Amino acid sequence: MSSRTSRRSLLTALGAAAVGISFAGLEGCTKPEGPKAGGPEEPKLNFYNWDTYIGDTTLADFKKASGIDVKMDLFSTNDELFAKMKAGNAGYDVIVPSNDFVARMSQAGLLMPLDHAKIPNMKNINKDFLNPPYDPGRKYSMPYTWLCLGIGFRKSKMKDMGGTMTPDSWKWVFDSDLYHGKIALLSESADLIRLCAKYLGYSLNNIPDEALPKIEAMLTKQVKAGNVLKFHNDDGQDLLAHKEVDIVIEYNGDIAQKAKDDPDLDFVIPKEGSELNSDTLCIPNGAPRPDNAHKFINFILDGQNGAEISKTILYPTPNDAARALMDDSYKNNHMIFPPAEALAKCEYGQFPGAERAQKYEEIVTRVKAAAGA
Amino acid sequence: MEQSWRQARSLFFSVLGAPLFWLVAFFMVPLGVVWLYSFGENRGLIDIAFTGTWANYAHAFTPLYLGIFWKSMWIAGLTTFLCLVIGFPVALAITFAPEKAKAWLLLLVMLPFWTNLLVRTYALMSIMGAQGLINNIAGFAWNGASGLMAHMGLHALPDFQPMQLMYNNNAVVLGLVFVNLPFMILPLYSTLDRMDRSLLEASLDLGAGHIQTLFNVVVPMASAGIGSGILITFIPALGSYLTPDMLGGSGAQMIANVIENQFKGANNWPFGAALSFILVYMTFIGVALQGVLEGQARKREAQGRAA
Q1: Do residues B173 and B76 make contact, with C-beta atoms less than 8 angstroms apart?
Q2: How far is B3 from chain A (nearest CA, A)?
Q3: How many helices (DSSP H) and strands (DSSP E) are in chain A?
Q4: Which of A82, A243, A369 lies closest to B267 in CB terms?
Q5: Domains in chain A, CATH or no CATH each
Q6: Whole-angstrom Cα distance, residue B175 to residue B78?
Q7: Which chain B residues touch A373 with a CB distance below 8 Å?
Q8: Nearest residue on chain A to B170, judged by CA atoms?
Q9: Which residues in chain A touch residue B68, judged by CB atoms under 8 angstroms apart?
Q10: Cα-Cα-Cα-Cα dihedral of B78, B80, B81, B82, to 10°?
């Protein structure tokens, strides 16, 4: 009997410890450690970036110019970045969230306001990028690249689509069996739902409730017919390059990188319009070295340094000074810089709110379950 | 005579201390936090309020998620069955192999353990892909045959179309069998190796055939090993996440993939925690079931010996 009581009290103690630790953990999230008052910062910087998303020599150049050592860690999705920052900043000074996550993280109080006086190279940024809806006045973020979702395809496998051999409508991925079993859709629920809404004639944002059942029915029909091979985790360019699929929803930069080695690949923004994204440089709350972080952001926004990055990653740059320094194969590449009339129909996707995001996720979960049934 | 731990209390606790601390600090406390999350509600984007609500569990028991649990159990069950059917003869063969070869054969079974799961999955993909090894060989043979037929004055074959081996449920099951097979073979081997060979001789001497001996003598004696093999194959297969994600097609999602999406894309940690804990409870039930079956088997064995 006595042993049973003691075991139970151990469990109670553990439970109490768990509660205590979890609350302490949450406390840690909401209470950023401010920079140490006074004194210069140590010459170090922790940079949290996407994979293959920096120039070959950029970090070494920065060290030469400023004496600051940059340690770079990699994340693979915005969700991963958000989940990490939500659990508490582990010492990162500069992070690279996409536009809707800038809105989400600034709403959640996870970002530090930028001091524009410390970023004079802001003058290089194209004026179209200076006042975006997700961060009015660029209070929290500086644009690093921009990108556009569209359709990547293998030219030699395209069929006649009403007089054209270019799949210039979302119809060919969402609502047609022309490429049966050779289609890959994006797995990211919010992006997928938004693009379906765009195809059905709605805006990306504030999708009305009555559109959601239509979107779900369309996707369910498409997967049940066996037309969709896979929902990919932003590796659609690899599926396309390895000939697993012929047509895929992807970002322009990803297809442009592959098309350099495989000229049979191409990219188009469908005529219904699409979703713009922009990856940005931000300083998370609790960053131990905000001064160095400002210096680093300013360095990247320099024309020469920006061009060095664009040369490696082949994503469109919002930096006019950097673009001017690039050669014609980059400047005039229709995948990297799609035609202006196509871009005019594109919008930034905004964070739809927590409840809505969960709704979108559940719709996509249901569609995938229907595909497996 | 075993010594009671009470007689060497200080030694007992000093030895137990480190693993107990490890278990509590790195397993029970984090798991406890997740357990608490499962009774919480989202407040804004980053905060979770512990309200003691059962809503997350109620949501998990809706047909959509029950269906996904059911599908995951089905895939894991099929994987376990195939592992048993393939693993049993392998384990039996290793048992009867010459002593010298045994160590090498066991090494071959364990070798894949030392390779990262991701690497093993990519290896499978490079074999099964549209431009993978199998399709390349098949395409080569196809084109050779086509050339030969054209040479003989027949119609050449149409162009080779790669077989779709990947991105479907078969590929997921194949991948899971490939990854989990050692979990089945090793416990089977350890029980089969302890088996009293004279019983097999007796069975054969008394006129039972090999097949009869296998099913009436070997399988019942190995039941404990079969039970633990099934358990430790089924549990990881049920919670598998990487294999369906990489080898599966549009309908491949298993419960672990849904849990991942709840923690990431949907940013709904309480619901993800509830789904995770349902998975944990299912594991507990499996372990308990296996314990009961093993206890019964032991009782039967004791009765058999007494009789």
Answers
A1: no
A2: 19
A3: 15, 10
A4: A82
A5: 43-146+277-337 (3.40.190.10), 148-276+349-372 (3.40.190.10)
A6: 12
A7: 67, 71, 251
A8: A372
A9: 365, 369
A10: 90
State the nearest Cα–Cα gap between A323 and chain B, in angstroms.
33
Per the listing, tokens 């932003």 go with A234
A311 close to A55: Cβ distance less than 8 angstroms: yes
Mind telling me how many Å the CA of B279 is from chain A's nearest CA? Answer: 18
ipTM of the complex: 0.85
Residue ranges per structural domain of chain B: 63-306
Chain B residues in contact with chain A using a Cβ-Cβ cutoff of 8 Å: 24, 28-29, 32-33, 35-37, 42, 44-48, 50, 64, 67-68, 71, 129-131, 162, 164, 166-167, 169, 245, 248-253, 258, 261-268, 271
Report the DSSP beta bridge partners of residue A46: A71
* B264 contacts in chain A (CB < 8 Å): 77, 79-80, 82-83
Is residue A192 less than 8 Å (CB to CB) from chain B? no
Q: How many CA atoms lie within 13 A of B244 on its CB side?
A: 26
Contacts of B271 (CB under 8 A, 6+ apart): A358, B56, B59, B60, B262
Give A-chain residues touching B46 at CB under 8 angstroms: 29-30, 86, 108-110
Give the distance, in angstroms, between the CA of residue A193 and the centroid of all CA atoms in the same chain: 16
- The angle formed by the CA atoms of residues A226, A232 and A234, to the nearest 5 degrees, is 150
pLDDT, greater one: A163 or A34: A163
**Superfamily covering domain B63-306:** MetI-like (1.10.3720.10)
Angstrom distance (rounded) from CA B94 to CA B244: 31
Determine how many CB atoms are found less than 10 A away from the CB of residue B93.
13
Q: Which of B249, B250, B267 has its CB closest to that of A357? A: B267
The tens-digit pLDDT sequence of chain B (307 residues) is 566 767 778 888 888 888 889 888 888 999 999 999 999 998 877 788 888 899 999 999 999 999 999 999 999 999 999 999 999 999 999 999 998 999 999 999 988 888 888 999 999 999 999 889 999 999 999 988 888 888 888 877 788 888 889 999 999 999 999 999 999 999 999 999 888 888 888 888 888 888 888 888 888 888 888 988 999 999 999 999 999 999 999 989 999 999 999 988 888 999 999 999 999 999 899 889 888 888 887 787 777 666 5
Chain A residue with minimum CA distance to B249: A230
